[in-house]
Write a structure and sequence with these properties.
single chain; FAD/NAD(P)-binding domain; 10-stranded mixed sheet; 8-stranded mixed sheet; 12 helices; binds flavin-adenine dinucleotide
């Protein structure tokens, strides 16, 4: 399956990490990580840092799955608002998920500081706009419950929203705990760092086509007929993880993104914050360090890559119109556009940990609009599991929740 198509900005901006290194012999390692996107890269980082021997395998060129298509906004706010999540998973689990998400942005920042990898990580504010009266009512409930649990949040009424952010709308939530980055640069940077520093083995163009449980671990078979023997497998295969799962746990969605030509910094909106809205499917926007605007959304149910791609031109026009509805005075000229495949779960939470009964196969499935923050949580949870460290977050994100 093509995970995205069109011109994904990050690969053009950074240049492709042109690393062709398929596995050509049988191989043994303690932990085999399937997938070299941001999830696989963060897991490799956590394991290497903890002294656990691991290797990463990817069937494509490194990090060219969903990671290359991501608009890379980092928000503690999950697709399912806290006020709704409480009804799905209970108050304490929902609050723990939100707190874990908040912490994960700080942890990502620390990872880049520790390693010296510079993926254009930048702290920014996040504005959650009410699209209409119904959205405003929801935001009021959301504000109350987040305040009750000490989560960072402020409320902007219509007047304040206009005077401080020049947006006409019924109101918004704001927090200063968000960030943005370049997810492709982060994944490739972390992998390169650990190849050099920790002797990490990285294999591209190596598809895992079959797996067999054996005493003390797994034997993985590659498309070229090589066998990888390992004690543990970590499936960080993104939206293609289904082949390793006994049953489907996510819904696939097609999503669209555009980046504008650069503008003068003075033409951009106040604080260059992340902006998203309560309407479904939602629209979101951010800026880049080189003064472009990146916008996205218009999600629809995924049927096949052909249908997703056919809709691209129409979706570009709709996204541009949405942008103009918020900031009509800012000139937005589309430079590149792409579409990607995305996924969601019914409760808005990722699936992290072993499938019940398979103690040596861990999944790191950061589905939803917060995929990257979930990847950070997954990397820590899996490292802790391998180290025998109890982590209370496992009950919130595990398959048996
Ligand atoms: C347009 C778009 C915008 C997004 N915006 C945001 C955002 O603003 N914030 C956010 O947090 N998230 C966002 N996301 C989601 C986020 O990008 C993803 O959650 C994240 O990139 C997933 O990373 P991953 O490493 O799990 O998956 P991927 O990057 O898809 O990596 C999985 C890898 O596994 C490999 N693989 C699969 N099967 C096999 C196999 N059998 N053998 C070997 N290799 C295999 C694939 O080749 C792939 O490289 C967005 C996604 C899209 C598409």
């Amino acid at each position: 399956m093509d995970l995205h198509s069109g011109l994904a900005y990050w690969i053009v901006k950074n240049e492709l990490y042109d690393y062709f290194h398929p596995l050509k012999t049988d191989f043994s390692v303690d932990v085999a990580i399937i997938g070299s996107g941001i999830t696989g890269a963060l897991i490799a980082h956590e394991l290497c840092s903890a002294g656990i021997a691991c290797a990463v395998f990817d069937k494509r060129t490194i990090a060219t799955g969903s990671t290359a298509a991501s608009t890379s906004q980092l928000q503690y706010e999950i697709d399912v608002p806290l006020s709704e999540m409480v009804g799905k998973v209970g108050e304490s689990a929902a609050v723990m998920a939100y707190q874990a998400s908040l912490q994960s942005i700080r942890d990502l920042e620390s990872v880049f500081k520790e390693t010296g990898v510079r993926p254009d990580f930048k702290r920014v504010s996040s504005i959650y706009l009410a699209s209409d009266k119904r959205g405003l009512n929801m935001l009021e409930r959301e504000y109350d419950i987040r305040r009750k649990h000490g989560l960072p949040v402020g409320f902007l009424d219509a007047g304040t929203l206009f005077s401080t952010h020049h947006i006409e709308g019924p109101g918004a939530l704001k927090n200063r705990e968000a960030a943005q980055m370049d997810c492709y640069k982060a994944a490739t940077g972390l992998l390169k760092h650990h190849i050099k520093k920790s002797g990490l083995s990285l294999f591209s163009h190596t598809e895992i086509v079959e797996y067999k449980e054996r005493r003390g671990g797994y034997a993985l078979l590659t498309g070229d007929g090589m066998t990888i023997r390992c004690k543990y497998v970590v499936v960080a295969a993104g939206f293609e993880a289904g082949k390793f799962l006994p049953r489907r746990v996510m819904n696939l969605i097609s999503t669209y993104a555009l980046v504008s030509q650069p503008v003068e910094p003075s033409q951009l909106w106040p604080e260059r914050c992340l902006i998203w809205e309560t309407a479904q499917p939602y629209f979101y926007m951010r800026t880049t360090l080189d003064n472009r605007m990146m916008i996205g959304g218009e999600d629809v149910e995924f049927r096949n890559p052909e249908r997703r791609d056919r809709l691209l031109r129409w979706k570009i026009r709709r996204l541009e119109k949405k942008f103009k509805g918020i900031y009509p005075e800012i000139p937005f000229v589309v430079d590149m556009a792409w579409c990607g495949t995305f996924s969601s779960t019914d409760d808005g939470l990722p699936y992290i940990g072993p499938w019940p009964g398979r103690k040596r196969m861990f999944f790191a499935l950061g589905y939803g609009g917060n995929g990257i923050t979930f990847s950070m949580i997954a990397a820590q949870l899996i490292k802790n599991k391998l180290k025998g460290i109890k982590d209370e977050r496992e009950n919130v994100f595990g398959f048996e929740r």
